[in-house]
């Protein structure tokens, strides 16, 4: 009994320390958002708490100043929602095909999915850019959404999740006269809620923080996403650190809301299939 209590105490202490280490950067950027931008240039991000240097000026400028921050913000919100919804639906459909049906070349195609997971995006950057240009999709949101609409990692995750669902559910649906489409929409998708929650958070974070590919294909500043827009605040001719720091801190809020909305299912989705009974 004592060993068990000691083990839990050590485990609690360990995770408490890890939690503090993770929260320190958020605390530093939260403090910096209340300080003048010149402090960031002079001292960098730090944990000093000086009430004499802190004010709401940065937040007042964020909400009332003349800038394009909220244009970039809502562009990112729109793209993230569209990309997450389409990626989850398309990837889940592909994964269901791999899990529920037997067809020629199934194993070969799934190996191709695994191989795609091993290829860094930077290797695909140049041919993908040429293809996007040839299709006339440059400077459009379609160029951002379409390349990742069937994510290899998301397909793999959904396929592994579906492999733990009893085949009798599909067979029962067919006996009851449901179509293949009806089985998928009415029986399978509701069961996949935990996996959808886990992948919504991970894909949402990737889409929200995506910088390189949108930076390559977007040229109209009114279509910039938030990471690109914040990058434009740093120029050789002057840096707007006041907006940069408060805008960076404010950009954390959507991801925080996304996690809080789906945290109920997140652990279930990530651990599904870990224990077979």
Automatic annotation (TrEMBL):
Pfam families: BPD_transp_1 (PF00528). Keywords: Cell membrane, Membrane, Transmembrane, Transmembrane helix, Transport. Belongs to the binding-protein-dependent transport system permease family. PANTHER family: ABC TRANSPORTER PERMEASE PROTEIN MG189-RELATED-RELATED, ARABINOOLIGOSACCHARIDES TRANSPORT SYSTEM PERMEASE PROTEIN ARAQ. It is a multi-pass membrane protein. The chain crosses the membrane at residues 12-34, 72-96, 108-129, 141-162, 183-202, 243-262. CDD domains: TM_PBP2. This is Carbohydrate ABC transporter permease. It comes from the Bacteria. It is found in: Cell membrane. The keyword Coiled coil does not apply. Residues 73-262 form the ABC transmembrane type-1 domain. The lineage of its organism: Bacteria, Bacillati, Bacillota, Bacilli, Bacillales. The keyword Zinc does not apply.
């Amino acid at each position: 009994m004592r060993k068990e209590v000691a083990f839990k105490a050590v485990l609690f202490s360990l995770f408490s320390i890890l939690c503090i280490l993770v929260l320190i950067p958020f605390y530093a950027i939260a403090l910096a958002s209340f300080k003048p931008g010149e402090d960031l240039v002079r001292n960098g991000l730090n944990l000093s708490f000086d009430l004499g240097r802190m004010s709401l000026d940065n937040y007042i400028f964020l909400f009332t100043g003349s800038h394009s921050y909220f244009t970039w913000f809502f562009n990112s919100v729109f793209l993230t929602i569209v990309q997450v919804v389409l990626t989850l639906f398309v990837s889940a459909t592909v994964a269901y095909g791999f899990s529920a049906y037997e067809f020629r070349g199934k194993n070969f195609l799934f190996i191709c999915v695994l191989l795609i997971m091993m290829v860094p995006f930077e290797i695909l950057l140049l041919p993908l850019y040429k293809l996007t240009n040839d299709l006339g999709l440059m400077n459009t949101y379609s160029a951002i959404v379409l390349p990742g609409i069937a994510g290899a990692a998301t397909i793999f995750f959904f396929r592994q999740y579906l492999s733990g669902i009893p085949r009798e559910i599909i067979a029962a649906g067919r006996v009851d006269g449901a179509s293949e489409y009806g089985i998928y929409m009415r029986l399978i998708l509701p069961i996949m809620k935990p996996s959808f929650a886990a992948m919504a958070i991970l894909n949402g974070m990737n889409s929200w923080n995506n910088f390189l590919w949108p930076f390559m294909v977007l040229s109209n500043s009114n279509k910039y996403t938030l990471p690109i827009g914040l990058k434009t605040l740093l120029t050789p001719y002057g840096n707007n650190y006041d907006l940069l720091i408060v805008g960076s801190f404010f950009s954390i809020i959507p991801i925080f809301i996304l996690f809080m909305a789906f945290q109920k299912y997140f652990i279930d989705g990530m651990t599904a299939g870990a224990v077979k009974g």
